[in-house]
Write a structure and sequence with these properties.
By secondary structure, this protein is of the alpha+beta class. It has one domain (about 5-245): Jelly Rolls, CATH 2.60.120.330. The chain contains five helices and eleven strands. Strand 2 and strand 3 (about 45-50) form a beta hairpin. It starts with 13 loop residues before the first strand and ends in a 13-residue tail after the last helix.
């Protein structure tokens, strides 16, 4: 199918922007209302925009009537507490779908690799419309933590690792990439995640913020990678057997950040 896509994402599927001066903004994420949701790692979410303006995180296609991840409705009580975060999410002028702050507790590289998942942003998206991508704005200073991207879930040679200092901004086609965050801690990590629709507005925003299509990936000891691969397959097999015992066919993880 043919969709409107961003030229800045065509080369690699992701792009980093100039870092934002996060220290200039108040820590609004600490005042938000959080809810639990399935995700990679021990997490909570504080939605700012949802299907109908309620404090919930479900995919828009799981509501009536269903729709794709576009036209999110801002939640007044949350926006009142975090006007700067809402402003940043709307800054490109692109259509906003789901928008929320994620709170991620410290985890391990093996945890992150096991929890790699692809999003389902474009379910019900119509041909000729803009392709939905996701943006991460890291709110806390986590320079040792890494956003991990893989084009092939089981092939570490396809892995890219991007650091997450305060103010880092990364846009990813998360339906193309398997992704998760390795948060080395010690405190919870907070990040603003926004679904944006590709188009001229998003292209202009990326250009204005000097989008980098080939950021440097962080090197990792091959022994750490190999050990995590073994652990990932062990956990997957353990989970498969548990589901099999219940007569359930295990599906791969999908849209855990929904």
């Amino acid at each position: 199918m043919s969709f409107i896509t961003s030229s800045a994402l065509q080369a690699t599927g992701y792009v980093t922007l100039d870092r934002y001066d996060q220290a200039a903004d108040p820590a609004e994420w600490l005042d938000l209302e959080y809810v639990g949701w399935r995700s990679s790692g021990i997490t909570r979410f504080a939605p700012l925009a949802s299907y109908a303006g309620d404090i919930e995180c479900n995919g828009f296609w799981n509501h009536t009537p269903p729709r794709t991840d576009k036209d999110g409705v801002w939640i007044p009580s949350q926006v009142e507490k975090a006007p700067n975060l809402a402003r940043r999410a709307q800054e490109p002028g692109a259509n906003v779908g789901r928008c929320r702050v994620i709170e991620l507790q410290p985890n391990t590289y093996a945890d992150a690799i096991y929890n790699l998942h692809q999003d389902d942003n474009n379910r019900m998206n119509e041909e000729g419309d803009g392709w939905v991508v996701r943006a991460w704005f890291n709110l806390t200073d986590d320079p040792d933590s890494l956003l991990i991207l893989r084009e092939d879930r089981f092939d570490p040679s396809t892995e890219v690792r991007l650091p997450l200092p305060a103010g880092s901004r990364i846009i990813v086609d998360t339906q193309r990439f398997w992704h998760a965050v390795w948060h080395r801690g010690p405190s919870p990590r907070y990040s603003l995640i926004t679904s944006w629709t590709s188009g001229p507005e998003l292209d202009a925003y990326i250009e204005a913020n000097h989008g980098e299509q080939h950021p440097q990936t962080v090197a990792l000891d091959p022994q750490i990678i190999d050990a995590a691969q073994v652990e990932m397959h062990r956990r997957i097999e353990e989970r498969r057997k548990a589901f099999e015992a219940q007569g359930i066919v295990m599906e791969p993880p999908a849209d855990l950040y929904s």
